[in-house]
Amino acid sequence: MEKVKTINKIDSLFLAKVFILTSILVFAPLLKNQIITGPLVNFILFVSVILLGRNTALSLCFFPSVISLLTGFLPIVMAPVIPFIIIGNMILVLVFDYLRNNQYLAVLLSAMGKFLFLWATSSFAISIFAKPVAQKVAVMFSYPQFFTALAGGALAILVLKIINNNKKNDI
Questions:
Q1: Quick check: 171 pLDDT over 60?
Q2: Which tens digit of pLDDT belongs to each residue from 119-141?
Q3: Is the pTM of this model over 0.85?
Q4: What local confidence, expressed as pLDDT, does residue 6 receive?
Q5: 98: domain CATH number?
Q6: Rounded CA gap, 58 and 86, in Å?
Q7: Looking at the 3D structure of the chain, how many domains does it have?
Q8: Collapsing DSSP states into helix, strand and coil, what is residue 133?
Q9: Parent domain of 140
Q10: What is the rounded (10 degree) CA torsion for 75, 32, 105, 155?
Q11: What span, in angstroms and rounded, lies between the C-alpha atoms of 52 and 47?
Q12: What is the pLDDT of residue 82?
């Protein structure tokens, strides 16, 4: 009987974490400001790798860009870009997970991987759009991706250190 309670408690805690992190990912695009939304989304993706595991973090990669499109933060003409954004987020999660033992290196290289992928694919995306939108896509897919990923990673490392210190103090 005690084992069942422990399993239910773990499942409930996991589900609560999934709900909270997913909620933040869903509401972040409503801020409609890349300088705030970008680091916040990347922060949640980094933290989700540690708190929820790689596979769950990968599933969360779909939410930000789809919600951005549905709320108008991402113009409808940029809908073809969504798969690139999702893949960029997945690169961030996979590289960070692979290198997670060295979180500073993991953040740096995962941010670089996401940035390089999005920057490289922006030329393809630009060819899809009209000139004014293409320039916006080019800017969105360039250096802001690197810096928002770094900012989100730095915040994630700070928060995870605080969480780990609190866990150690509870023991």
A1: no
A2: 888 766 666 665 666 666 666 66
A3: no
A4: 54
A5: 1.10.1760
A6: 9
A7: 1
A8: helix
A9: 2-170
A10: -170
A11: 8
A12: 86
- DSSP letter at 78 equals G
> What single letter denotes the amino acid at residue 16?
A
Backbone angles phi and psi of 62, in degrees to 5? -80, -30
Angle at the Cα of 115 (from 149 to 155), degrees rounded to 5?
10
Q: Are 94 and 54 in contact (CB under 8 A)?
A: yes
Condensed to tens digits (0 to 9), the pLDDT of residues 86-124 reads: 999 999 999 999 999 999 999 999 999 999 998 888 766
SS3 of 13-73: the string is HHHHHHHHHHHHHHHHHHHCCHHHHHHHHHHHHHHHHHHHCHHHHHHHCCHHHHHHHHHCC
Please provide the DSSP assignment of 135-149 as one string.
HHHHHHTSHHHHHHH
Average pLDDT, the chain: 83
Amino acid in the structure at residue 98: Y
Could you tell me the two tokens for 167?
A: 């866990």
- Spatial separation of the C-alpha atoms in residues 57 and 47, rounded to whole Å: 9
Amino acid at 48: S
Residues 6 or more apart whose CB falls under 8 angstroms from that of 54 comprise: 93, 94, 97
Rounded to whole angstroms, the Cα distance separating 158 from 76 reads: 35
pLDDT at 51 over 70: yes
If one compares 8 and 92, the residue with the highest pLDDT of the two is: 92
Encoded tokens for 45: 């993706």
